[in-house]
Amino acid sequence: MPRLLFIALLCLSAGSQAVAQNVQQAAWPSHAIKMIIPFGAGGGTDVIGRLLAQKLTERLGQTVVVENRPGAGGSLGSAEVARAAADGYTLLLGSSSTHGINPGMYASLPYDPVRDFAPISLIATNLFVMSVPKDSPVKTVADLVSMSQAAPGKYDYASSGNGTTSHLAAALFVSMSGAKLTHIPYKSNVPGLTDLVAGRVAMMFDNITAMQAQINAGSIRAIATTGLTRSSVLKDVPTLSESGVKGFEIKGWFCMLAPAGTPVEIVNILNRALVQIVALPDVQEKLVAIGADPETGSPDDLQKLIASEIIKYKKIIEIAGAKLE
User: What is the pTM of this model?
Assistant: First the structure.
């Protein structure tokens, strides 16, 4: 009897612990949630993150606090989330930079982009646009290729820095098209765009959000976008693939992640919330206004995207010779 009683007590204890754990997870969230944005305030990632934080606060009934942790191409903030407790109270607004480019760009990272995170959902994608100065004789991609080939070394392209998507998109274009252009890296996209407007460089790639105001003002001319289908923001601008660089595709993306080991129940709650939020008309309108295309999916979809983009960007980085220590 004592042995049977002991076994019964063990079973009762295990059952109580399971019930307690389920109750604890069912009560999530019980206090404020922290969302780390691994880039500075004011950029496209920050704008999207703050929009999501507001909507998640309304939907979850707990405040979602945004904290910017810029540095090392988003690596510092991403590493902070990778080390955080896997309890659903620390989230990362990740991107193609933190989980696509950085693994191939840096010799070592303070986080593993796959092993250290629990994928939640894709949020949006954004295309890049190739632009030239308003007074440039270049009207098409073919014009730029032939002009540069006729005078190798004469024409430059600007980028927002070595290893940025702005650089990688242009390096891939040069490789695939045979254009003869010299890379001029800037410390950010702003001085590069300034020199593009002034006609001191022949071409620049950047995300649509960054270039949209200058394109609309007529200060620069959009030549092509980087998706396989046309941008919903620049519908009249052909894709590079349409323009003769067959199969060219580079796009940025934004996603939500949590530390690895975060309970599946919490991940699913967040996934459902984000899918519903991104489907809201006002959210879609705001995303499109900054050049982003709303797009969500399952945690498994995001995991597959990250894995495939790491492979893709490693190949592009090799082409660009942009590896950093």
Answer: 0.81
